[in-house]
Design goal:
With about 140 residues, the chain is an alpha/beta fold. The chain contains three helices and five strands.
């Protein structure tokens, strides 16, 4: 058992989680989740688990389609990982992917990393993780 969030690194890990269910959505983000025990690497047989440790696993997908500038994509990813750390104890042992599914209006957020953009992203991520954790708690109880 580990006490910090492990990051998804490989394409098969991301694909396995995205094939799971969507547990929460907001206007700009979706949170996908998959249990650790049921996910195995397709071409390596059942012994090769994609997630070797029983931890909370998290990945962030911020496509160029929705955030054109690299500095914006990196700022959004930093917010995703920072906010997720607060919710780690409540997420449950599973693999999660936060996916940006719509762009932020560049007319409203002129700067690529403005404080207003960061605050908006953070508020929406807090809402996303609250919804997800409420769903996890309801499923357990």
């Amino acid at each position: 058992m580990c006490h910090n969030v492990q990051r998804l690194k490989t394409r098969p890990q991301f694909q396995a989680v995205l094939a799971g269910k969507t547990i929460a959505r907001t206007a700009h983000f979706a949170l996908h989740s998959a249990g650790l025990g049921q996910v195995v690497q397709a071409d390596a047989g059942p012994a090769a688990l994609l997630f070797p440790q029983q931890c909370v696993w998290l990945g962030a997908m911020v496509p160029k389609r929705w955030a054109k500038r690299a500095v914006t994509r990196n700022a959004i990813k930093r917010q995703i990982y920072n906010v997720s750390a607060q919710f780690e104890p409540r997420l449950g042992l599973a693999a999660h992917v936060v996916r940006l599914r719509a762009g932020f209006d560049r007319a409203h957020f002129v700067s690529a990393t403005s404080d207003a953009l960061k605050a908006t992203v953070r508020a929406e991520l807090l809402s996303l993780f609250e919804r997800a954790c409420d769903g996890v708690a309801a499923a357990k109880g």
